[in-house]
Amino acid sequence: MKIVVRAPNWIGDVVLSFPAIENLRKNLPQAQTWIAAREEVQDLYLSFDFVKGIIPLSGLNNFKNLKEAAKKIKEYNFDIGLLLTNSFSSALLFYLAKIPQRWGYSRDNRGFLLTKGVPFKNQDEAPSHQVNYYLNLISGLGFKTSNPELVLPLSPEEQEWAKNELSALGYDSKKPLVIINPGAYYGPAKRWPASRFAELASMLQEKNKVQILIVGSAEEAELAESIASSMSERPINMTGKTTLRQLAELISLADLFITNDSGPMHITNALRIPLIAIFGPTDPRLTGPFHQPAAVIKKEVPCWPCSYRKCPFDHRCMTEIGPAEIFTESQNFL
């Protein structure tokens, strides 16, 4: 039996879906498990030896590309397709690939494309973490599930690469390493102001004698540089200079990770690195750190929660959080 899992599109969702995939494997141990994933996130699945192969997906924004991807998937002769994505187009992809069994949540008007659809329950009244959202799909399909645990294994060779890379950049291993992740792909509404990251990082350098490392995607390079150039002591800036897997390798060396609500936050949590998550418009009950050690800093404001990518008001959910508050919380981890 061959199963293909359509992976979530975003870094954080990929990590949060790991327990669902692991539980599927436990229920169908003899099956080959394949992953169909966006090229941007596919490297995260290299941690799992039960994954037989990865099918990279790109450019699925029109019907022509969708048909081409379906033709490619059809060549593998999969028996089952599991959708961890919610979109109509992802269900259509597996339908066009003529996968006999197509499983997923019956939502977004795509139920007729599925052979086994699990009813979608709105979480507005009883918020539940996204980890459970994916795991409930597995149990809704009739499989047994166990208590979820986020894990992202890294090899000794990968961790050694991170040590050597930082050493070449002047990292002093005698100092605690604090990683700053000031970006958030969703948009500026989820980002704590850059000036406050700079002030916090300078406080940590002065009072805790830490080494600061700034990370992020290439699109966040300007944001990271604005922080680095405002600090009293120049940090190491690796923003836009790593693959996703290399980012995880660097994070694995941290003593503390300070971040907005973002994909790297969940990578850090899966690695069990202490983290402080700064939440603004989003709900940590749904997408907050799933495991300890972690702390969430959030302000109660009347306009919360919201789904704005850019705040149309005064961004008070973020601006009411000061550097001193984050610094005080950091002392519980350093």
TrEMBL record:
Q: Keyword Manganese, does the record have it?
A: no
Q: Which GO terms describe its molecular function?
A: ADP-heptose-lipopolysaccharide heptosyltransferase activity
- Give its E.C. classification number: 2.4.99.24
* Keywords annotated in UniProt: Glycosyltransferase, Transferase
Q: Name one Pfam family in it.
A: Glyco_transf_9
GO biological process terms on file: lipopolysaccharide core region biosynthetic process
Listed Gene3D superfamilies: Glycogen Phosphorylase B (3.40.50.2000)
Q: Does the keyword Glycosyltransferase apply?
A: yes
Its cellular-component GO annotations read:
cytosol
What the entry lists under InterPro entries is as follows: Glyco_trans_9 (IPR002201), LPS_LOS_Heptosyltrfase (IPR051199), RfaF (IPR011910)
The protein's enzyme class = transferase
Report the catalytic activity: an L-alpha-D-Hep-(1->5)-[alpha-Kdo-(2->4)]-alpha-Kdo-(2->6)-lipid A + ADP-L-glycero-beta-D-manno-heptose = an L-alpha-D-Hep-(1->3)-L-alpha-D-Hep-(1->5)-[alpha-Kdo-(2->4)]-alpha-Kdo-(2->6)-lipid A + ADP + H(+)
- Please name the PANTHER family in this protein's record: ADP-HEPTOSE--LPS HEPTOSYLTRANSFERASE 2 (PTHR30160:SF7), TETRAACYLDISACCHARIDE 4'-KINASE-RELATED (PTHR30160)
What family does this chain come from, according to its entry?
Answer: Belongs to the glycosyltransferase 9 family.
What is the name attached to this protein's record?
lipopolysaccharide heptosyltransferase II
Organism for this UniProt entry:
candidate division WOR-1 bacterium DG_54_3
